[in-house]
Amino acid sequence: MRHYEIVFIVHPDQSEQVPAMVERYRTMVTGRGGRVHRLEDWGRRQMAYPIQKMHKAHYVLMNLECDQETLTELEHAFKFNDAVLRHLIVAMKDAVVAPSPMMKEEKSRSLTDRPAERTGERADRPERASAPEAPAAA
Questions:
Q1: Quick one: angle between helices 68-79 and 18-30, nearest 10?
Q2: Burial tier of 8 (Cβ tally within 10 Å: 0-12, 13-18, 19+)
Q3: CA 72 to CA 85: how far, in whole Å?
Q4: Over the stretch 8-28, which tens digit does the pLDDT of each residue have?
Q5: Which residues contact 28 (CB under 8 A, 6 or more apart)?
Q6: What 3 state SS string does the chain have?
Q7: Which of 1, 9, 25, 104 has the fewest Cβ atoms surrounding its Cβ within 10 A?
């Protein structure tokens, strides 16, 4: 069996159907003796160029190991699913299990935002200087 990396983008109005689609594709691969090594849901992202007058889409990355027949069936499923706007299948030499750069970026971004979340301030807004308190009149 060969290793493949698959990225597909889904119509933004169909984002709620992505988990069911991913599960269907996963069972398609595992049901025929294949393995899913990495599965990442990148969520809605800005596209590099508009597709069908849309600027955002839902991205999913899968690294899997399967035979040619399963890959053909997956490609057929992508082509005839109206929710899938584009897909890309790349043959890989080895299984990839490490997080992708997109997920590393998300983790680093969430770690840098943590202190701002705890204090209730937004990270992009500077703190306001408070006016000195006036002494209490006696």
A1: 160
A2: buried
A3: 18
A4: 999 999 989 999 999 999 999
A5: 70, 73, 74, 77
A6: CEEEEEEEEECHHHHHHHHHHHHHHHHHHHCCCCEEEEEEEEEEEEEEEEECCEEEEEEEEEEEEECHHHHHHHHHHHHCCCCEEEEEEEEECCCCCCCCHHHHHHHHHHHHHHHHHHHCCCCCCCCCCCCCCCCCCC
A7: 104
Query: What gap in Å lies between CA 10 and CA 27, rounded to an integer?
Result: 19
Question: What does the pLDDT look like over 93-138, one tens digit per residue?
Answer: 998 888 888 887 776 555 555 454 444 554 454 454 555 555 566 5
